[in-house]
Amino acid sequence: MQLLIDYIPIVIFIIAYFFKDIFFATAVLMAVMPIVLVVQWFMTRKINKIYLASTVLVLVLGTATLYFRNATFLYWKPTVLNWAFAIAFLGSQWYGEKPFIQRMLGNAAELSRSQWNRLNLMWVAFFVFVGGVNIYIAYNFSEAFWVKFKLFGMLGLTLLFVIVQSIWLTAAMKNAEPAAKDTEH
Fold first, then answer.
1. Could you state, in order of their start, the residue ranges of all structural domains in the chain?
2. What angle do CA 73, 1, 120 make, to 5 degrees?
3. How many Å apart are CA 178 and CA 158, to the nearest integer?
4. pTM summary value
5. What's the CA gap between 88 and 13, in Å, rounded?
6. DSSP-derived secondary structure for 82-110
7. Tell me: the pLDDT tens digits for 14-51?
8. pLDDT tens-digit series, residues 168-185
9. DSSP class of 71
10. Host H or E run for residue 162
């Protein structure tokens, strides 16, 4: 459900883009994202920090896009966000009690510290990769292609990565089970 709510502004952005242009779509996105943030808060009584960071970036880079009439600022938003996540996830390997991925999935899986670190590094690599792909597409393809990539390409890459992660997690937990059972005997 959260993923669908997070993608509502992107869908509205794409509709606005094809209705008029990138600048109109940027203004619409800048209006919609804070509204969705408030709706999420009313529904859950929590602020989604990732969505908040994305909203702040949209407001800052969207303002620059509209002020300078240059979409390059907006093109960088997904890259900046993904690379910031990569840095945060990487830093969590050494700072804090648990890597970020363990904090997110710790209730769903039991892994060793080294497995959590490996999974966390997979997320670091994913964020770096997606940020790089975004900027590559922004500079090497048409604006319309980049707009479509924001929804379909990034969502597709994320879903593919989650599937790969799920397969890895299943295998890692199966390998960990016999070791846990052996220590019980």
1. 1-70, 76-176
2. 65
3. 31
4. 0.88
5. 27
6. HHHHHHHHHHTTTSSSS-HHHHHHTTT--
7. 999 999 999 999 999 999 999 999 999 998 999 989 89
8. 988 888 876 544 444 444
9. T
10. helix 154-184
